[in-house]
Write a structure and sequence with these properties.
The protein is of the alpha/beta class and 271 residues long. It has one domain: Vaccinia Virus protein VP39 (Rossmann fold, 3-Layer(aba) Sandwich), CATH 3.40.50. The protein is 26% helix and 20% strand. It has seven helices and ten strands. Strands 7-5-6-4-3-8-9-2-1-10 form a ten-stranded mixed sheet.
């Protein structure tokens, strides 16, 4: 397993089920897991087709497995370490199986929220309405009643897909969306775990907003993209952030050292 530390982020290139089982407590789990099998099939059917003439990256096939087989394990592992909010993106149809698993756990299911996509891909065959939104489920796993920073705000988030898009990951989320979620559900200094880091958008948002970040990504090519993007986010700085620390690999059996020893770190041999 490869481990990188960048600023207030610890990044693992490995299997999230294995890494999560060795982590200590984290503030919140905010992640974009793989889609359900039905949407995987739909997206992969469009792979390689030419649809755009505006210079934006074409749709890519999904080169990872659907979430269905591991959903229950992700919920179980998250409920054991999460001390606040559990947020997982999914299809509209995926909200029900996520809610079922959450309700069977120690976490308290709150509701499904909506991300509205004004620039989503139209229904290219014209045979019905296009998908113009995506959901995420929100559950509370902290002590006492649920707490967030936005009072009675509705759980509807409207952000374009292609604003500032890196384009190297097929399901990349926009940075403004992730920043808004961090603003609503988390506080500066808290540790945010993303078990499906992908190209690192949540880590970029954490770097810009003073949150610690623990990211896990199995695919080495996406892991490298995440390291690059998160390092760049720190190098650009923000008014309350320290200059970035040098990116360097860590041995999986060594504990990271430096200013961030309070970050949860996988322990060798942990169950």
């Amino acid at each position: 397993m490869r481990i990188e530390r960048i600023g207030d982020a610890v990044l693992y290139n490995g299997d999230c089920l294995e890494v999560m089982a060795t982590l200590g407590e984290v503030g919140h789990v905010i992640s974009d897991p793989p889609y359900e099998a039905t949407l995987h099939a739909s997206k992969n059917s469009m792979k390689g087709r030419k649809h755009r003439n505006d210079g934006v990256a074409e749709l890519k096939g999904l080169d990872f497995e659907p979430v269905d087989a591991i959903r229950s394990r992700i919920v179980s592992l998250s409920s054991a370490i999460c001390q606040g909010w559990f947020i997982a993106f999914c299809t509209v149809e995926g909200t029900y199986p996520w809610a079922q698993e959450i309700n069977a756990s120690a976490m308290k299911y709150k509701r499904a929220c909506i991300w509205v996509k004004p620039d989503s891909t139209p229904q290219l065959n014209g045979q019905g309405p296009a998908q113009g939104a995506e959901c995420f489920v929100a559950a509370w796993n902290g002590k006492g009643h649920a707490r967030w920073n936005s009072g009675g705000k509705r759980g509807v988030y409207t952000h374009c897909i292609n604003v500032g898009r890196d384009g190297r990951h097929p399901t990349e989320k926009p940075i403004p969306l992730m920043r808004e979620l961090l603003q609503d559900f988390t506080n500066p200094g808290q540790a945010i775990l993303d078990p499906f880091m992908g190209s690192g958008t949540t880590g970029v948002a954490c770097a810009k907003m003073g949150r610690k970040f623990i990211g896990i990504e199995m695919d080495p090519k996406y892991f490298d993209v995440a390291c690059e993007r998160i390092a760049k986010a720190y190098s650009q700085g923000d008014m309350f952030l320290e200059p970035p620390k040098k990116v360097k690999p860590l041995d999986m059996f060594a504990s990271p050292v430096g200013d961030n020893d309070n970050l949860p770190v996988a322990q060798a041999g942990a169950a």
